[in-house]
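so ive been stuck on this for like two days lol. basically i have the seq below and the ligand is flavin-adenine dinucleotide, smiles is in there too. i just want the complex predicted, nothing fancy, no docking runs or whatever. if the output looks off dont worry ill sanity check it later, just need somthing to start from for the group meeting slides
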Amino acid sequence: MTEWIRPPSLDEALAARREHPDFMLLAGGTDLMVGAIARPAPVGVIDLFGLPELSGVSRDPAGGLRLGAGTTFAALLTDDAVRTELPALWAAAREVGALQIQARATLGGNIGTSSPVGDSLPVLLALDAEVEVASSRGTRRLAYDEFCTGYRTHALGGDELIVAVHFPADIGRRVQAWRKVGTRRAQSISKVMFAASVERGADGTVTLARLAFGAVREQPIRALAGEQCLAGETPDAALAEAVAAAVLTDIAPIDDVRSTADYRRTVAGRLARRFVLSLA
Amino acid sequence: MTESNGSQRSVGDSPPRVDGTGKVTGAALYVDDLPVPGAWHGRTVRSTVPHGILRAIRLDADFDWSQVVVVTAEDIPGRNLITLIVDDQPALVPLGGTIRHVEEAVAVVVAPTRAAALEASRHVTLEVDALPSIHDLDAALAAAVRLHGDDNVQKRLEIHRDDADIDAVLAACDHVVEGVYTTGAQEQMYIETQGMVARWEDGRCHVVGSLQCPYYVHTALKPLLALGDDEVIVGQAVTGGGFGGKEEYPSMLAAHAALASLKTGRPVKLIYDRGEDIAVTTKRHPARVRHRLGLRADGTLVAADVDVLIDGGAYVTLSPVVLSRAILHATGPYRIPHVRVVGRSMATNTPPHGAFRGFGAPQTTFAYERQMAKAAVRVGMDPIAFRRHNLLRDGDTTATGQVLSGSVGSDAVVDALEQALEAEPPTPATRFGTLSAPVRRGRGLAVCFHGAGFTGSGEARLMGRATVAALPTGGFEVRSSSTDIGQGALTIFTQIAAQALGVDPVHVHIAQASTDRVPDSGPTVASRTCMVVGRVVEQAATALRERLETWGRSASSAAPAASTASTASAPPTAPTPAPGTAAGAGAHDVLALARRHLDQVGEVAETRTYEPPAGVAWDDDTYTGSAYPVFGWAACLVDLAVDEDSLEVTVERCLHAIDVGRAIHPRIVKGQIEGGTLQALGWALWESVPYADGRVANPSMTDCIIPTSSDAPELETILVEVPYAYGPHGAKGVGEIPMDGPAAAVASALEQALGVACDELPLLPEVLQRLVAQGGAASIGASS
Ligand SMILES: Cc1cc2nc3c(=O)[nH]c(=O)nc-3n(C[C@H](O)[C@H](O)[C@H](O)COP(=O)(O)OP(=O)(O)OC[C@H]3O[C@@H](n4cnc5c(N)ncnc54)[C@H](O)[C@@H]3O)c2cc1C
């Protein structure tokens, strides 16, 4: 029989994690339950769903938003600070699965799965998010692009838990964008996701640019060539074309059962262009 | 039509579904919910190559087989066949036999739990000498690999309206519109996967499952098990959707479950998981239709020359009948004096394609309505005016020489559509996300017809029967093999019987569709359940009421000595007599009479057999005559918007006016139309079943996309009622027709929006991107 631990506090969760590194960490289960019947049962489960210290939105001492890893997308959607300061994340949350999934699916689970089609993940890149992880040894924070290490892999240690995600204090000042192109409107796996944010100077030039994509490489990525092309410039139609062309060098989409490389590449370029046009 | 008075009125109302509460509360028992004490579980072992000779079935020597039974072709007591139209498909491929598609069943492993059966199945390996294989129509036509005869043609059918040389006629036309239209496979995606339970008792085999046609399974099991009529009993469990997918395929599950139960001596449950269900069961036939249409400069249609190819897959199964319906619909609801249609069903090394709502007609409807859209543009006519100019009307003659008489709603549906168009459109849903692109808009139209009931001589051959009986427990029971698969048959039969008996619907019960309890009413297919079997139910119920009333009048004391059950073929005499109008025969009287009859004489039942209306004659050899007893008619209009960045399509408006004869239960009828329309929009825009070397490449609900409610527009459904004299209360088939038209309307709208020919389905954004890149709307994707 599978052993089931439901720790009442973070300390106890970390202790359980240290003691049972081979146990499955379960949050909402919306990734883990898919196909579970075809896999061997785990030796044990550490059930984190609803753990108070992992849930909810707060502000860290630096003034940035801190989203608990166990916060569901449904909870994010009802949070005013998330809606106003992180509109790109709010929009992404709105499109995860459908209402039933949003009620269970957590931000930490999305990060834990680290799939190239995790909808929140390009947003974390575009908004310079940091992942807070903890073990009974202590706590550390990693920028999301350090945390995610490849196709469904990440830098979480065997005794660690994902605890929260942090955003810069002034994130609300950035212009943000989100667009998911999926297989349909709901319950849909993304073919291309695009998340972006910029800061602009008084003269309208782009002083900071973040362009991120999902589903176009083995992991969510920042389109660095595209960002370089955009930063320091004043958006106009010509710049939009240039950025669109630049992002194509950042991505390496594939053909699979959900879409084609050609479509993903074409749409990725158009979304970047649309974003720059929206700034013009 | 006259209604019976007050409380008994039911036909034309929308009372709560009789199966609704059970389904909503979870009380309804689907096959996997049935308690089957002592049951073991089966898992099918399947081929992994598309073509080859089976040399050996090897069991992993390191695996513990003590709790597993392996069933192979050697365990079949009778003929190793799934009996259908042609005797070509084995239940299990025998050693030395030919494997003709991936996922073909070779063995069934049976174990005490489902997990154990699954695990055991992973320890069976097949030794196969692989053969070259073919997977599409072109390869089948090339016939470098021969799967069926010399040319891979499973069935060829032709329609010739006249003796004219069609090429010469076309050459003389002012305009010839020509196109090639390809459509893809489609998965039924019923919500309940297929499942079956079998057990043996007293030498008889009992099977219960998720199925549409108990007597198809009965017919298939008898020769397989070498049993007689009464030794095989097939019943339907509550069934979660079929759409044709549970028409012929359940015979396969039943065969496997029955053999497994025979060998283990225990009941056996065989329940497919979703991946298996999508990978192995039948889909809509992929098709390619070449269509040439000749017309005069004034827009009058002169000639049609149509070549229809469907991919039948590895065995013949139902493909000849699908092909038949495909070609019979190939020229649409239009007056065309010169017609040639040639249809071929081709063999490939793909799991057999099969029944799916529409049954061949959606494929050819897509072709001819795309043609009509192009033809209207060619002659410079408004699309609606062009259709009206050519529509078949009462008294006109179809391609097979059928003279339409009665219930021809062609103008009525177009009128209704035009009228509805004037209403305020519903507000389209807005897109999510924070970036929005401009859209391109387009409008498309489709007008079509759909033959209701079995094709050609089918209904005459079937002789569908139904019984209505007075129950010892009070009330009445309707016995038919027509199944409720979610479409509302139970409710509609209840309404029809109650009204004919002149009793409140609560006094009518529908018997479980089990072959030991109900007569063969024919299969639950072809938009025939309400129109054909409903009619027979009405006749049986009317006969029973009349018999009770006669008995009550003539012999309140002296009981009649005659037999208590009677059967008759009621020659159809339209219109249906209004029930309860016989003098003095109120509801209470019929119920009380039945009770008295049971007390004094015994049980009483009436059985009736369907007879096609006079004048419905069909010649299978020349393919001429009345292809169908009657047609449904439909007009569909689609407004859509295409996102310029992603080429995602939003259907902003979809109007569908359908002539249903008479809506027995308007809410259920609208539900059928909405569901069918969305299924058709899905086929057009989202649903794709790609095959890789004959294997379904997306066997999961995650990847085998069907539209969700978020993708659906607010469907505007308009019921048009042009009564059919030989249907119950004027009703005619409605189940399939909503599937036919919308895809062509979508394609025409996309063509208008993007300026590229949209002649293939599905029109996924990836396909639109390819079409746009190949030419046409050069500005799509450019700065705007
Ligand atoms: C029908 C359906 C639709 C879906 N649609 C979408 C969609 O549109 N977009 C999308 O991005 N995803 C979608 N998903 C996937 C899934 O809902 C998300 O990835 C979700 O965020 C996972 O969260 P969870 O809490 O359910 O994770 P779980 O399934 O509980 O866990 C996922 C992984 O994260 C790990 N994990 C969870 N919490 C922690 C923690 N605190 N510390 C360390 N590791 C942890 C788990 O061990 C596991 O490996 C869908 C899933 C389903 C079933």
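Residues A 24-32, 34, 48, 69, 96-97, 101, 104-106, 108-110, 112-113, 118-119, 156, 161-162, 187-188 surround flavin-adenine dinucleotide (CB under 6 Å). Chain A has a mean pLDDT of 97.
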